[in-house]
From TrEMBL:
Enzyme kind, highest EC tier: transferase
Protein EC: 2.8.2.-
Single annotated GO MF: transferase activity
Record-annotated Sulfotransferase domain positions: 6-271
Origin species: Thalassobacillus hwangdonensis
Annotated InterPro entries: NST/OST, P-loop_NTPase, Sulfotransferase_dom
Keywords assigned: Glycoprotein, Transferase
SUPFAM superfamilies the UniProt entry points to: P-loop containing nucleoside triphosphate hydrolases (SSF52540)
Pfam family, one: Sulfotransfer_1
Keyword Disulfide bond among record annotations: no
Source organism, top-level taxon: Bacteria
Protein name from the UniProt record: Sulfotransferase family protein
Amino acid sequence: MTKVNLFIAGMSKCGTTSLHNYLNLHENIYMSNFKEPQYFIRNQLKFPHQGPGDRNIDDIIIHSTDYEALFEGSEEYQIRGESSSDYLYFEKSAEEIKEYNPDAKIILMLRNPVDRAYSAYTHLTRDGRETKTFEFALEHEEERINLNYGCMWHLKSMSLYYDKVKHFIDVFGVDQVKVVIFDDFKEDSVIVLNSICDFLEIPKSNFKDEDLINYNISGVPKNKKIMSLVQNKWLKQIIKNMIPSAKAKEKVKGVIFSKLLTKEKMQFETRIRLIDYFSNDINKLEELLNINLSKWKK
């Protein structure tokens, strides 16, 4: 079978879901329908995870035949890709991917580490999995990691990028790794998408703003009971049956979430403390990538 040659390898809550779906609009790109197969970290994940609502081993791909099946019928496409946003966190996945396809291209999406940590927290809150405050979650993060909570609970740990990005670059080389900054992606997705086309050595596509909807919205529920009803599995299945189109479904979900979620601000003291915590990692990342990340230090 023709090998997968594009991996959106992380980080979670940095726009990977949106990028996955946007790239799938390109006529030369086939992105797997199953996002987050986690195939190249299947041996590094320890199941069962203990966090409320965490994924289990049945939610990932562990057999090569099942992985290959994700790309059946994609041989005609120049680019065949998948997105597993925990690959970057489990950096040894770089060697696994390299062994599988040494010519693979890697995209790493990075977000202000303070905002990424808070977005992960509000994602857990949105889904009713987190019931404590952000400050409590930060204070008890190490305890939860030791209890084998899933990666989404690793708020600060997943926001330390330097060593992991450097490892991917060391394994694949600078020409095969593209780092996308979430701020740039959010400000002008079309420009970023066209730069990715250049990176992948494919023609630019006529990406339309109306097709670039926001996926995987996070926020704090205004009413937990109503949000719990919306998240109910049977209701999700009804919506799925009524709206088969993935894009239409995301639009409906976006409208619903915009009404039910609110963007609460982080406590100022917590932000200052986290900026200090991440400052050294940000400085090293700036030097590694030769970019200005001063916005991340405010």
